[in-house]
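in:
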């Protein structure tokens, strides 16, 4: 194919393109003759010397301590009057012998009743230590940056606002361990790893021992310069029996009080989640009264800690709790109402000024074939079931989507006008855990036939989901589980949430990557986790673009997770930014290169 000479001369500069291409034409109507010329390399010898390609660069620690000029709520000395009267404050000491003997109870909430909570749960592994470990300074050698990847991670000019929330996240059940110590009651997750479940390899009774190593873990965050730490409080550590009116565990309150104070001491700002999937079993058995039980627990926590906590998350990923917490879709309404009750109590009764959010799970569903109307309908329907079902009432003040409510056997009724009014607007920004995206198409038998059959594996969304494009290519680099390095969908995920639900802001509250077969690699190979670095950098660059080019108010990003942890029964899915040696008796941690690169990204992009 020939180019017209008029076009060609337009793209040439002074008759040359890069000094290598020259266009010549003998006639204004004849095609030009192209000739190329290349610079001849000048070969030469010189003396050889080794060039130092690495340098000893160290992480910059946080300034500490941190304090707030104005408390976010009244101190406990003033707020304690808001607590119900007649509460018993105590602690329990687990006695497995008494549990096994199943001695008769003498009181509804006495020591024997506490032992009986654990009758059906025992573990092969026990925590190797049972007291809080004093922190030690992080050795300087641990804070050496890995080899630089420049120019591959060269930084663009776009900046993030100075108040951008960035840091790391974890959850109590996944890292604490010590399930049966210091008065904690059981949660619905505790069967994972119990002997009865025949899964001692994922024994959460030990996990990463963060319950006694939290001071060292916070010191490690501060040494690397990580300003925000999102963690959760175990409901059953505060209220061992779970339900309203039952005793409150003094040791649990003291533990989290010190955890928050330790964060502030080291210059780390706490973000506190009240429930991260670890509901007490007694509460799940009485979900119709969730608001009563949840308020009872939340008041104990917030009256004590709210003066020092600028951000609260009420529930973690409640939109996917059907099946994992309770089988009925009515649980979603129960959670919405409980969330709203705590939000309004905090703002209106306690007088708190912190920001409160609720965290949704969602890997955006895209139509497998965007030109196919049934694929588009499948994507929309899936999103209505995963986000609209709670997002409509919470963020728009609108009813649950009609295609959800009209699905046969859905066990979910519409919200009343009063319930809509109570729920609407009870978040200060919305949080999302968008690890990746996925493609949707209808169930093989069609949406209508599938939705009429509650026993169908794809019911009720009735969407067939895949990470393989219509042309046969994977959407991105696959992980050991379900995450993909697929940054091309980050802006669509944020755009969908922003333009559909119109929140005041969006927090990316979890995002992360677990490299394939990471658990089989050597420690050095685990630490040099280039795939995770690429995941974070590609993802965050798209966040920058969404902010600057799409006008989306992304208020922060929190990496999952602070440590390799118990991913609900698996230590092979290693999302952590730090390794954990679970065999040395000390649970030694090591930073991974992705952690350094993650911190470096924000140091280059946060406006000073």
């Amino acid at each position: 194919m020939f180019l017209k000479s008029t076009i060609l001369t337009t793209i040439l500069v002074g008759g040359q393109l890069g000094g290598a291409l020259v266009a010549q034409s003998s006639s204004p109507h004849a095609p030009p003759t192209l000739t190329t010329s290349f610079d001849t390399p000048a070969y030469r010898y010189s003396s050889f010397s080794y060039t130092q390609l690495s340098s000893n660069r160290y992480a910059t620690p946080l300034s500490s301590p941190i304090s707030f000029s104005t408390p976010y709520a009244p101190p406990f000395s003033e707020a304690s009057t808001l607590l119900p009267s007649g509460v018993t404050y105590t602690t329990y000491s687990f006695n497995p012998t008494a549990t096994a003997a199943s001695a008769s109870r003498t009181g509804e909430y006495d020591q024997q009743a506490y032992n009986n909570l654990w009758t059906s749960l025992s573990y092969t592994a026990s925590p190797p230590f049972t007291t809080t470990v004093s922190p030690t300074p992080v050795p300087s050698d641990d804070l050496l940056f890995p080899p630089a990847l420049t120019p591959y991670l060269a930084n663009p000019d776009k900046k993030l606002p100075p108040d951008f929330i960035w840091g790391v996240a974890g959850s109590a059940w996944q890292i604490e361990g010590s399930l049966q110590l210091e008065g904690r009651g059981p949660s619905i997750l505790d069967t994972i790893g119990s002997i009865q479940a025949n899964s001692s390899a994922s024994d959460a009774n030990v996990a990463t021992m963060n319950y006694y190593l939290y001071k060292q873990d916070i010191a490690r965050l501060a040494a690397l310069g990580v300003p925000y730490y999102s963690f959760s409080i175990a409901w059953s550590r505060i209220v061992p029996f779970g339900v309203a009116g039952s005793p409150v565990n003094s040791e649990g309150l003291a533990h989290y009080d010190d955890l928050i104070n330790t964060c502030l001491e080291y210059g780390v700002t706490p973000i506190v989640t009240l429930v991260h999937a670890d509901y007490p079993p007694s509460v799940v058995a009485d979900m119709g009264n969730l608001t009563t039980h949840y308020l009872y627990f939340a008041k104990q926590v917030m009256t004590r800690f709210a003066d020092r906590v600028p951000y609260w998350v009420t529930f973690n990923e409640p939109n996917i709790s059907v099946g994992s917490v309770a089988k009925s879709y009515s649980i979603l309404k129960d959670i919405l109402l409980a969330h709203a009750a705590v939000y309004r109590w905090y703002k209106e009764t306690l007088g708190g000024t912190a920001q409160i959010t609720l965290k949704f799970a969602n890997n955006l569903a895209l139509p497998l074939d965007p030109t196919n109307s049934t694929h588009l309908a499948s994507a929309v329907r899936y999103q209505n079931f995963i986000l609209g079902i709670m997002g409509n009432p919470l963020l728009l003040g609108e009813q649950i989507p009609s295609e959800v409510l009209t699905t046969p056997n859905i066990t979910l009724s519409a919200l009343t006008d009063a319930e809509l009014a109570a729920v609407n607007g009870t978040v200060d920004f919305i949080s999302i855990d968008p690890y990746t995206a996925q493609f949707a198409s209808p169930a093989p038998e069609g949406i209508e036939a599938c939705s009429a059959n509650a026993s169908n594996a794809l019911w009720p969304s009735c969407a067939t989901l895949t990470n393989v494009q219509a042309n046969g290519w994977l959407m991105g680099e696959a992980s050991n589980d379900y995450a993909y390095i697929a940054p091309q969908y980050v802006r669509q995920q944020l755009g969908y949430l922003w333009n559909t639900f119109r929140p005041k802001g969006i927090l990316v509250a979890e995002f992360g990557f677990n490299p394939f077969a990471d658990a089989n690699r050597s420690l050095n190979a685990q630490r040099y986790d280039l795939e995770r670095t690429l995941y974070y950098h590609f993802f965050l660059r798209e966040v920058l673009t969404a902010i600057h080019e799409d006008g989306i108010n992304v208020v922060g990003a929190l990496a999952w997770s602070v440590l390799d942890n118990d991913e609900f029964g698996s230590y092979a899915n290693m999302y952590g930014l730090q390794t954990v040696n679970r065999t040395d008796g000390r649970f030694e941690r090591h930073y991974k290169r992705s952690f350094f690169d993650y911190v470096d990204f924000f140091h280059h992009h946060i406006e000073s």
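note: Residues 428 and 507 are 11 Å apart (CA to CA).
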